[in-house]
Amino acid sequence: MADEVLLLNFWPSCFGARVKIALAEKGINYQYREENLLQEKSSLLLQVNPITKKIPVLIHNGRPICESLIIVQYIDELWKDKAPLLPCDPYQRSRSRFWADYIENKCYECIRQILYSGKEEEREAAKKDFIDMLKVLEQELGDKPYFGGDNFGFVDVSLVPFYSWFYAVETFGNFGIRAECPKLIIWAKRCLQMESVAKSVPDPHKLYYHALQLRKKFGVE
After folding, report:
1. pTM of the entire structure?
2. Could you give the angle at which helices 120-141 and 182-192 cross, rounded to 10 degrees?
């Protein structure tokens, strides 16, 4: 019996893009269902994720898995016939999880504050925190092609979708990232050369217009 795989997602979501990248890396065929979170959430989403009511949700043979990093790990552990995203060594696995958790706790909140906060001091503080965070990640990357070394892996999957937001963040925040973190930009462009990434992440200009509409809705000048 073939696996039935369904992904519930909202197109601007970097968290959903993580799952799409992981599925592409593993060569998994799946159905896709778009959830417009700016409107009413679907009954299916509320049924399969009644706790947080958020996307992405991966439904595998009728069983839902929630939260993007948990989903990516599930995909990696279940479909083992392709190259692993997490290292085999327990210590290196723990380090990958640590950095993915660091990204999870820092990146989205900084971007959200820069784009949508109505207070200038909060936006300025978020810009500083964002650059500081990226510099920490750039230091961890070092001179390696990818965070795990020579192979694209879990930390790369965790971070690279946020690169799609850099254009909007730089434009609305009126600051530059390339000058501060040039190695990280090179890493992001290297990742985008991979088909699994290029076809999974949101378009930066489309995200810009999406952010513009939300800023108008929130009354952010």
Report:
1. 0.97
2. 70
